[in-house]
Design goal:
CATH superfamily: Immunoglobulins
Strand content: 35-45%
CATH architecture: Sandwich
Distance between the termini: 25 Å
Strand order of the largest sheet: 1-12-11-8-9
Shape: globular
CATH class: Mainly Beta
Largest sheet: 5 strands, antiparallel
Number of strands: 12
Helix content: 10-25%
Order of helices and strands: EEHEHEEHEEEEEHEE
Number of domains: 1
CATH topology: Immunoglobulin-like
Length: 227
């Protein structure tokens, strides 16, 4: 197994919270996600969606790309379940984002991610190293997530009028960086991309895809605080 570089860690699970500033049921889930965001063994990410904007408040962090990611998960599962707050665990299970017991149960169903990934920060790059450990995966996509550790938003309209909510590990950018076919791989990513995003944290996620290109099971991940 690869060793993570200084300041990097290899989590056992990836939690993706789909939330909205216009959703009155979401603040408890936002708070729960912030607790997971403090753990080194969990990669907890916040994705703000935009489909509740019509209720009177335009989500300042919302993105149609993240709404589409959530819909793609529902399409891949075949259940059509798109709601907030929703946590997707390791790209497969989905639970109500404020239900701690359900989140913990989903994490325990996948005790480890089989593909080992290490991150190392250099002067002008972040090096991603993927280990081949015999895991039988035809192909998977390697994704870069750039995120901000905390964003606090005062909300003046909509269902959360008058509330100030802090969001943790807010994804500012998510993009594919390579395809993986089961072999050892090293990819250098320019740090300038992280600098331009004005973010101090990044993660790499290895995720399988369905035949139609929808996101599938997450099989590896690593995260790092940038200096």
């Amino acid at each position: 197994m690869l060793a993570a570089g200084p300041g990097a860690s290899e989590p056992k699970a990836v939690l993706e919270l789909f939330t909205s500033q216009g959703c009155s049921s979401c603040p408890p889930a936002d708070k729960l996600l912030s607790e997971y965001a403090e753990r080194d063994d969990i990669l907890a990410l916040t994705f703000n969606v935009d489909y509740w904007d019509y209720l009177g408040w335009k989500d300042t962090l919302g993105s149609p790309e993240y709404s589409e990611r959530q819909r793609s998960y529902a399409g891949a599962r075949g259940d059509g379940q798109v709601y907030t707050p929703q946590i997707v665990v390791n790209g497969v299970d989905h639970v109500v984002g404020s239900n701690r017991r359900a989140v913990e149960a989903a994490i325990e169903r996948d005790l480890a991610l089989p593909v080992s990934i290490a991150l190392e920060e250099k002067d002008d790059a972040v090096t991603v190293s993927v280990d081949y450990n015999g895991t039988k995966i035809d192909h998977a996509a390697l994704w870069l997530a750039i995120f901000q550790d905390e964003v606090t938003v005062p909300i003046s309209r909509g269902e959360n009028t008058g509330r100030t909510i802090t969001y943790s590990n807010v994804v500012k950018k998510l993009r594919p960086i390579a395809m993986w076919h089961g072999e050892e791989m090293v990819v250098d990513l320019p740090k300038s991309e992280m600098t331009k995003a004005k973010a101090k944290r990044c993660a790499v996620i290895m995720q399988t895809e369905t035949a139609s290109g929808q996101p599938g099971r997450i099989v590896g991940a690593a995260m790092m605080d940038l200096h």
